[in-house]
Amino acid sequence: MKKIHALFIILASLLLAVTALWGWGHSYASQATIPPQVRISSWDVSGQSIEGFRQELSERIQQLERTPFIFTFGSSGVNPVKTTLSELGVQYDAGEILIALQRLQEGSLLDRIKARWKFPKEWTLRFHWKENVWKERLTPGWETKSFGKPVNAVRKIADGDQVQYTPEKTVYRIDRMQMEQLIRAAIPHTWHEGQTIAIEVPLVVSEPPVTMASLKAEGIERKIVEFSTSFVQAEDGRTHNVMSAAKTIDDMVLKPGDVFDYDKVIAETEKKYGFKEAPVIYNGKLVPGIGGGICQVSSTLYNAVLRTGLEIVERRNHSLPVSYLPIGLDATFSQGYINFKFKNTTGKHLLIRTTAENNRLSIKFFGTMDSNVSYKMETKTVKVLEPAIKYVKNADLPVGGHETLQRGKKGYVVESYRIKLMNGKQVERQRIAVDTYRPQPTLVAVNTGTSDPPANPKQEQGPILEDGVNGPDFQ
Fold first, then answer.
1. CA-to-CA distance for 12 and 47, rounded, in angstroms?
2. How far apart are CA 414 and CA 121, in angstroms?
3. DSSP 160
4. Are strands 197-200 and 68-72 parallel, antiparallel or unpaired?
């Protein structure tokens, strides 16, 4: 009997303990408050009602996202840009703690007990940031409007042929990579008490493509040579042609190693200005044509090149002597046959300037050249070529009679030499060319009394057209 009584007492005690434990567990799991010692990014939320916490959390996040954010631009003179965290694309998220709190109120009693018992003490407020939002506001277009555009440095040739420079204008631009890092670092990871967040935008100096340093590095330091020839400036085709070709060359810059091509100059001149009628050289004779005078530009340029010591790539003399230069120092042009080319061998850039005024065509080179070095030219006639006699039939003359219609002109074989001077003393003498100017035949009319034409000396075939771009139709 005693054993039964003892067993009853034990069972009753166990039942009472289980009932008490269940009651404690139910009470523990059914709490509507947050467990003790819980913090979310320094905010102590322990003991708060879960529902009240949700409401306050939403309000705090909204307040945090409304935090003023100001971009300042240092001493650039640009006004600050004001915005907020939310307008910058910042969104805060406390979803992890809300999910964990939901587990305290859902599931079996045992699940809720475990969730509350193991509830973490420290939680972090997280944020998501759409990086492109600020870029869409502070666009390159906004930068240009706010800071302006960079302006290239300018080089000009002033009065007295002085080389002068106008410095470039630099502007500010945003260092976008550093800017992104600064914004990310400035976004609060904890609860912010509404103070304005301000960052000074990192700026970098933006230079234009052409700076004074880059221009000076080209080496256009001074006028290194000038050469002029005379021409009669009038309202005629030749003046137009000379001045048009000169304008095309004016301000041309050759880089080191560049080859000047007169054929390209003539093509561009014809496109921009067109050529007018003026005498050209056709098979050794002056005849009406289009573009007459363009070889005065190439010949004047040739003499400037010679006196700068540059390399002549391609050049030929006229078939006839020209009036504006000594024989041996001219450079003709025949489209498709003869060109004038030279190479910039100064090692620096070379600027060509031209003027055609006061009956003078002047070509100037600006660049780098040893001021102690100069060049002069000498020519020597090594052979005089006597004119041949060309006969034409004239039946109006008496049989056996003859009449001189045109006296011939002598031709020449000429050597040209470039002499290099150092401090005025000759240090080098170089033969540049051997040129032949064909003699012009004496034209004689005869009547031999026969139908056969008189015999004439055999003529060497020359270029069809010189010193122009088009001639008359001789067919």
1. 36
2. 105
3. G
4. parallel
